[in-house]
Design goal:
two-stranded antiparallel sheet; Arc Repressor Mutant, subunit A; DNA-binding; homodimer; mainly alpha
DNA sequence: ATGCATTGGTCAAGCCTCTTGACCATGAGG
DNA sequence: CCTCATGGTCAAGAGGCTTGACCAATGCAT
């Protein structure tokens, strides 16, 4: 028998229930956002791109920085940027302070796509808020943020 | 401008915040469970296997059923079962009522691995419960279950 | 009974995203 | 300077999934 906070084994089911609820609701959220983004005309982006957009939104970033943020190798990040550049969401330029590096920035299309994702997220949250009530929604988000901690957010979709 | 429940655009940020909190906490949960399962000696299983275990736990199932439950093709499910069979977590036998089908069942090792996952989930939930308080934890789970709905739970890890 | 579309499963090939490994160019500190 | 760390790229390959073709058992309707 292992230690897990001195809990009674009969509470295993509670942990499992919470885990499933968490994973399922996160999955629904991703589905809804992806769907909403597609309905707004951006059919060639995947959830991972959203995480990249979020990182690049504030003034752009480097391949290496993006890789660290997404928890992947810089080769994979470079490939992702290649793809986004081809699709017109991102632009590579010289880095102002480091000739080795290249600054990756969102284009207008990239920002438009990000706004679409934000709208889709708000739409999804609004639907749940309508069912749960705004105050419960606020608590929910606060509790989730506590569980999430400050660590990096790796995409897994 | 699109419709999303008549919300003010300034609330976009709330939707995004909720979405990130949801995805990050789900990711943490998966990490913790995966880690706890590994610490209990099962180092050759991935999160996806857990979803398969959960489906097979109640009397076993068929490849096709598993595929539907996991939201993947039956070829992919068959491959997953091959792997779990090789690792000793699962056993293929004849199906009692259909000679075409083969019944996939958990072995003792499979059940032991599932218990390890349940313990790890309870451990993770316990840690959060200790910080948030049991009553908030109950509300959290209930609200999440509401968001999750009844649809199938596709693994994405 | 028999004919035939349906369903469970497998084999084979390929795709997509990510990884590992090797490498070049610039930067930074002694 | 010389050296090592760092940003980026090229090349090859692994892993987990898909599509496509196929066989065998089923079950329903003649």
């Amino acid at each position: 028998m292992h230690q897990y906070g001195g809990m009674d084994p009969s509470t295993n089911e509670d942990g499992v229930g919470l885990a499933f609820a968490l994973m399922a609701s996160a999955a629904r959220m991703v589905e809804r956002i992806d769907d909403g983004v597609a309905r707004r005309g951006f059919t060639d982006v995947r959830p991972t791109h959203g995480f990249a957009f979020a990182f690049l939104a504030a003034g752009g970033g480097t391949i290496t920085g993006l890789a660290a943020h997404l928890g992947m190798t810089k080769q994979a990040a470079a490939q992702l940027v290649d793809e986004m550049e081809t699709k017109g969401y991102v632009r590579r330029g010289p880095h102002p302070r480091d000739a080795r590096a290249r600054l990756v920035e969102l284009t207008d299309a990239g920002r438009a796509c990000m706004r679409a994702a934000e709208e889709a997220a708000a739409e999804a949250a609004g639907a749940w808020s309508g069912a749960l009530g705004a105050d419960r929604m606020v608590r929910l988000r606060r509790d989730l943020e506590h569980m999430a901690g400050d660590g990096p957010l790796r995409p897994m979709w």
